[in-house]
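WARN no homologs supplied; continuing
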Amino acid sequence: MPTQGPARQPTTELDPRYSSALNPRPGSEDVTATEWSEAQRHLEAAEIFWVSTVRPDGRLHVTPVIAAWHNGVLYFSTGAGEQKARNLAHRGRCALTTGRNSLSEGLDLVVEGEAVPVTDPALLEEVIAAYEAKYGPHITSPEGTFHGIGDAFRRGDAVVFAVAPATAYGFGRNDGVYSHTRWAF
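OK structure emitted
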């Protein structure tokens, strides 16, 4: 289970091979690595993530999920019989991605780690609170798309996974200036 408490601080490295430092453009001479605190703000705000898992036969499975960043860990859920749950039962390694669909602006993020099922009732309540704070009426309103998800977590109808980052990548774009940051935990 990912540790609770203060989030681990990663080492941060700019990869000039994939940043504008290698292919200078106006404004790119000052390209720097993205700070982890900025990446965390994006993880907290992102509404949709794509989780990538591997099937037992080696084929990839990618699907969208909602997720909440809480205490340095990314949490998402799925039904126990869904493909991603079956894949993670076989091999827990996964990647969650989020970002912008734009060539010229935004920050795309990839978080790699081990998906660990959350079974501790107190932690489940924290995750439910994080989901409710983030997604609001989508979860708390009877008309919400995901209304009842907290109760599904409590009953075990949905499996909640915790992914503490092992490695993360940030691909920044700012009006033609690109950065590629790697965070190692």
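The CA atoms of residues 99 and 108 lie 4 Å apart.
OK
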